[in-house]
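Journal club side-thread
Mid-discussion, someone asked how the predicted structure for our own chain would compare to the paper's figures. Pasting it here so we can look after the session.
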Amino acid sequence: MSKLVVSHNLAAPVMDYLRKQIDEVVVADSADQDILLSHLKDADAAIIRIGSITGEMLRQCPNLKVIGRSGVGYDDIDIVSATEQGIPVTITPGGNARAVAEHTFTLILAAAKNIVRMDIATREGDFYIRNTRNCVELYEKTLFLIGFGHIGKLVASYADAFGMKVAVYDPFLASSVVEGMGYQYVPVLEEGVKEADVISLHIPMTEETKGLFDVAMISKMKKNSILVNCARGGIIDEEALISALGSGHLYAAGTDVFSVEPPPQNLPLLKAENLTISPHNASLTEEAVISVHQMCAESIVSVIQGNKWEKVADRRVYEHSIWRYK
């Protein structure tokens, strides 16, 4: 008998698939750790859409063989503890890449064209806000991509269509990969930040990237540049961003993510006029949701059957004795 715990329902066809493959599927319908743990203690597998799993929780789940994340972010899972116990944490890179890339470029355009402020003013009767000419073109501007995975590559292709110059910082890629695609490879992050007209973040939240864009880093950005974040909220220091937007150092910004979600209604960031925001929904197109959920579900079924799933948060998990002869 195999048991799977899902924090929240997946797309209907994916839930049907799981129920055909796994003996018992339990939907906790909660991100509360105590509720999740009550179901996980005798589970073989878990899929976490919203919620977290700590090392202490893992130590109380002796049967757990795999944890699936329906996305690429895994900062809510204690990866170190999972790896120590031989539990792969599967991820779904690329499954929602096009949706996030499209959303990213939407925020870039909204910031450059001041769309939200223009919309609100026009609805309120201020048609002549048009005379402020408070918008810029993207043509021949430099887009600096920090992170060049599935999403970054797609955003670069969209920038090509707008006639933008593209520069890339990704310490995990050889310069030849980036340059072979016709883009500029930037070996030093700060150098790219200084030269960019638009910066877009496509990196995970780690100890190294948390607060990466703080007062010091944002101050290095070109005056009247644009900062967009569809990665993780904590990568940008929100107070530093507010200050830079308010002072006019930054022309505008766009974010799909916040350091605390949902953001409190009194969050000062929400009052910034030159900030375009969305509720962490970049990846939530109908097509992307089904794709990511299905990929996650297939990873769970495969690992339960004893197979090594390629796309995991930490491949060192397969060095554990549990996997030695598989």
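Post-session note: The longest helix spans residues 286-304.
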